[in-house]
Design brief:
Helix content: 55-70%
Radius of gyration: 21 Å
Structural class: mainly alpha
Number of helices: 6
CATH topology of the largest domain: 3 helical TM bundles of succinate and fumarate reductases
CATH architecture of the largest domain: Up-down Bundle
CATH class of the largest domain: Mainly Alpha
Number of domains: 2
Oligomer: single chain
Shape: elongated
Length: 139
Amino acid sequence: MQKGNIFWNSENSDNFPSPLVFLGCPTDNQRVLRGDILSEDLIIQITGISLLILLGIHLFTFSSYSGGLEENLSWEKVKSRANEGWNLFYFLLLSAVMIHSYEGVKRVLSEYFPGKPISRLLIPIWVSVYLWALIPIMG
């Protein structure tokens, strides 16, 4: 198996690691060719970045810059946010939270219980919590 990754040729690197290793990129060509890059690392990074953006928008919506918490929780403001755009926003926020937390909890539990099928236990729990949390959003 050839060491290195698709971004860095390790044979000519004088044993320096790829700078992309520190960003969570794969460290060997076989992993990229198998498609494992989408399994955990990239999903966690994508959902983490989307959580930063979506939570930033959510917090700004309820911050003092947009009228404060009391005004934003008034009936008129809540009613004005009950449309398809905000429903899509909260759907994306909830989906990113659930996917990111699932992958994180799966990693922690797989470290505590190596070799155990953690996904078989977590998937039904996460799907049921996700569907339960979607009820208020989808009305």
